[in-house]
Sequence to fold (252 residues):
Amino acid sequence: MSTAPFSLTGRVALVTGANTGLGQAIAIALAEAGADIIAVGRTEPTETQAAILALGRRFHAVHADLGRSEVIPTIVDTALAQFGQIDILVNNAGIIRRCDAVDFSEADWDDVMDINLKSAFFLTQAVGRHMIAARRGKVINIASMLSFQGGIRVASYTASKSGIAGLTRLLANEWAGKGVNVNAIAPGYFATNNTQNLRSDEGRTRDILARIPAGRWGQPSDVGGAAVFLAASASDYVNGAIIPVDGGWMAR
Fold:
C-alpha cells in the first residue's frame, strides 16, 4: 500500500450523473481527495463545476444522453482528449419510474434499463479497454438496496439494480487479474430527487425511518467516503464487493 492510501492526486475520474445528488457528492469527494473530474450527463453540472474548480482541480463536462448507447465512444474519446487518461469510472446516472407491476409500461421498462444498466455496461466496457491496457483502474457502480431486495412499484429499477450487482461481480471476476478493480456502492434511502415522492408521503417516510437504525435519511455527502475508498489504492485488494451505505438498513 502507498504511504497515502486514500490520495487520488494525479488521477482522473469520469462520473456520470454528477450534476446533482449522489453523483455530485461523489464527484466533489473524489476531487477533495485529489482527482480531476469529467462529468457526464444531460444537464449542465454548474454547481458541481464551481465546487470542483474551487478545490483547484481540473473539470470538464461532457453533455450526453446515456439513454443512447451510441454516444459512449464520443464520451470516452472526449475524456481522453481532454485529460489523457481515465483512472476511475463511477456509473452513477440513473432514473426511476414508479407504477404497480400489473400496469408497468414497456416504455418505462426500457427507459430505466437503458440508462441504469445498458449504458453502465457499455460505458464500463469502453473505459475498461483502456484500463486493462494500462493494467490499472477503478470502476465503481452505484447499486441500491434493491440490488438485494424487491421493493414495490419499481419493477424496472429493481431489475436494473439487481443487474448492476451481477455485472459488478462478473466484471470483477474477469478483470481483477488485469489490474482493474470493479466494486459497487449500494446507497440506502437518501434525500435526493429520486426519493422526493417517498419523502412527501408521511406514511412511507415513517415506515422507512423506523427501519433505519441511524434514524434519518442519508445525505449525499454520506456516500463520498466509500467512493474515495473504492477509488484509491486503499482498496487494491477489494474486488466484486457491494458496500451498503444505508444507515444500517440491511442490518435490521
Summary: The chain has one domain: 12-244.
